Fold:
Amino acid sequence: MLRKHLGVGLLIVLLFTAVAPAFAQEEVVIRFFHRWPQEPRNSYFAALVKEFQELYPHVRFEVDYVLNDPYKEKIRVLVSTDELPHIFTSWSYSFAQNLVSSGRVKELSEFYAENADWAKDIMPAQIDGFRVGDGVYGVPMTIDGKAFFYNKAIFEKHGLQPPNTTDEFIALLDQLKALGYDMPIMEGLMDAWAVSHYLGTIFQRILDPAVMAKDYNPATGEFTDPGYIKGLEFFRTLTEYMGPIATAIDHETARNMFAAGEVPIVYMQFAEIKMLQRTGFNDFAFFNFPAFPDGKGNPNGLTGAPEGLMLAHNAPKEAEEFLKFIISYDNMLRFVEADGQFVAIWNCLPEDLDEVSLAAYNLVLESDEVVPWLDNAVNITIADIFMRGGQNLAIGVTTPEEVMAQVQKAAAELRKATNN
Amino acid sequence: MGRAKAKSKWSNLLCVIVGLFLLAYAVVIVYPLLWMVMSSMKSYNEIYRNVWALPSEWLVSNYVTAWNVGISDYFLNSFLVTGATIVLVLLVGSLAAYGLSQYKSRLIDVLLIVTMGGMMISPQVTLIPLYVLLNEIGVHNTRWALILPYVAFRLPLAILLMRSYFLGVPKELEESARIDGCSPLEVYWRIFVPIGKPIMLTTAMLTAYYAWNEFLFAIIFIDSNKFKTIPSGLMNFRDALRTDWGVLLAGMVIASVPMIILLISLQKHLLRGMSEGAVKG
Amino acid sequence: MVRFKKRYNLAPYLFILPALLMLAVFIYYPIIQNFIYSFFRFSAFSPTKTFVGLDNFKNLLEDSVVRTGLVNNVRYAVISVIFQVFGGLVVAAILEDKLLRRVAPLLRVIYFMPVVISISVICFLFTFVYHPTVGLLNKFLELIGLKSLAKPWLGLPNTAPFAVIAVSQWQSIGYIMLLFVVAIQKIPQELMEAAEIDGAGRFRRFFSVTLPQVKETLFVTTLITVTGAFLVFNEPYILTRGGGPGTSSITLAVHMYLSGFFRDNMGYASTIAIVIFLITGVLGVLQATLFRTGKDE
Structure:
């Protein structure tokens, strides 16, 4: 009798220990940090989080998001502690390099190799933005480009053509002014980053790539090339055409003025195309930043580097699954349809894509040089001097020479600090 | 006779001018606020195209959106932070005020100067070291990162106000309590705290005003959207709603209305409270 | 003075201890750290600090932005004293006049309303008001036929600082005004009545009775306003996105914040903090001395 009870008891215990682990699956927390408190991306990511949780019930998310500028500061602070979020968004090139140098970002070559089937959908050229040294440290999500968008109706009405060189560009602006458009081009210079987008492209077009590479490196940067002064001068000329209200408005307002037909030309990211279309404005096209007559940089370079996702070195396996979940054809297609910006997945386009967007997409794919945003490419102190300098040039309180003098001084200090 | 007439004509003119001046001042204050309420129920396009007009369609939905996008969180955080700050300031401050008012010694004088010295140092100046310190104690990005500095910076003034008041408490009350065998703590709790209610109310009001509106620490010491107080949360709010001016304005109205209602209902107390001690800043 | 028994000798200090602890940790320790930090160069996210001696101070003296900031702070101080202190006093005196007895409470609430509204709300509101094309201010100027005066207020270096300062006045005149109302209400009735009987008109009464009687409040409010002017951060930070365009509307506090948290130079930010501290510290000593003489023990 006793032996029978013992036997049953033992059996039950054995069964329990076999089955128990399934019940005792520990809760895994994933910390996810992105930079979009605004719609539609906020809801998009919230939806993905929810769906992922349905697939993996033992996962709990801690999602946080801060906008653009605070995001840049916060992620740098976070990456210096072990409070680093498990999965977070990041810009590419120098920005990515900076984060990787903390030693806390997960290297992903193995991850790509193990998930080759998933990885084959991703555009290799965009992955390059996340290469640091011998490793790959991120997965590209969105791709972008920035170009001059113009009002087709106005151009057609007066028989105007998109310019190929900067001289033609200035002539075009003069023509528009003569035709009665007081502000032939507009930008929201209150947003310092808008200045850096202009300057980044201008410098890339003018400077010898080798000089640029040397200068943008904090250990060797000198910024003595006269091309910088020429570039700042060109920027100042452009701002003259923007008129006095440019420094009192933000980029958003400038874009809305373009959408309202008040301004014929605006420098805009492809990601904003859908925002224009939402206001009901559709009659626009674009041209790439013109070439400088004796510019040494690649005139076909397209400013606008990819943005993507990175993993912390101690991220749980589930975070990797979440990464693959986000960067998948279906979910990325939903993203494109909701948001409008293009993604780094092959052929991930909605069927009813309009002409302009298609042309933009092709331009991004075809461009043979990706030019990163200036404030991602150089040290923040240098970028800040350029951005404030640009604003000061626009309001006429400084000269290009003065701005460069400040840059050179800061670069000298940076060299000293980096090489010690 | 003529002189009196001229004088009254002159003073009538003066009255009119003064009246116009007061009216203009009132309009300058009220009109932008009214515009804010009116525009909060418009769509972006309407605000952009027609500044003065009444909304063609009253978008009360803007308010719902604003509430959901995060204003409710900001309110909660502001309440928690302000509430905790007030409680701690009153507690810690009144204890210190009691100690400083009831005893006399050279050390007490020194401590008094140390307390007053705290008034000389303004929060902005300690920003960087505080940031590092709060990180080191590990409270960065929690509500304590705001509560602790707020309390510390409001203590000097609170202590001095309450101490002045306590000094005026009749000695007989205290002596009779001592004779009855109360310990100093009991004297504090049973006599000074009840008597000190008016000054505590004033202190609470001044502290509330400071904590509710504090901006610099609020934007730097807290990153997460879910812990932000109103002043700093609104910044995120604006960034999140770049083209939706209507919803932004709705959020601004929601953030302002409670304080205005409080002001209107408590205006008499406000005057009395300021009378008690606000002159000292 | 009540004397407590010997065994309670520790008591007073126990009462003061919590407060003292908070002051020491969150006020005094940081201020000392500030001085130490100014000799180093470090960023928010690197634990390593590099000793740079007096470099930060040298840079400070050569920094034109510091000069611009200081100029703006002084502008702030002067304009705030004129509008808030004197303006507030005048409005308070008017409101306390017999004739306005009925309307005074209403007007007081109206004028005080901006004070209780969050600074973020006020700055966003004025961003709309100052908007170059659809803002209330420019539209209003258009309406009354002064279109030529319409400007991009926050976009030009010679209007931006003043546009920012104006917003502070809009918010704070009411506060100082109420302080004066309180002070004026405390003036003994007999003094006013005596002056009236002597035949003094309103102006005369203001200058010979009101003004001398509110001397203390006048002094204190000037001090508060000037101190505030050297500490101001919120308005320039929000309205012009950190002192723009360029650096024309920057203040010392904004420069300190940007140096520390945007340009990653915490050591330099601490140096700027020392400058602010010296200026406001002196003003604070004045204020504390006044408080002591005001309320005797």
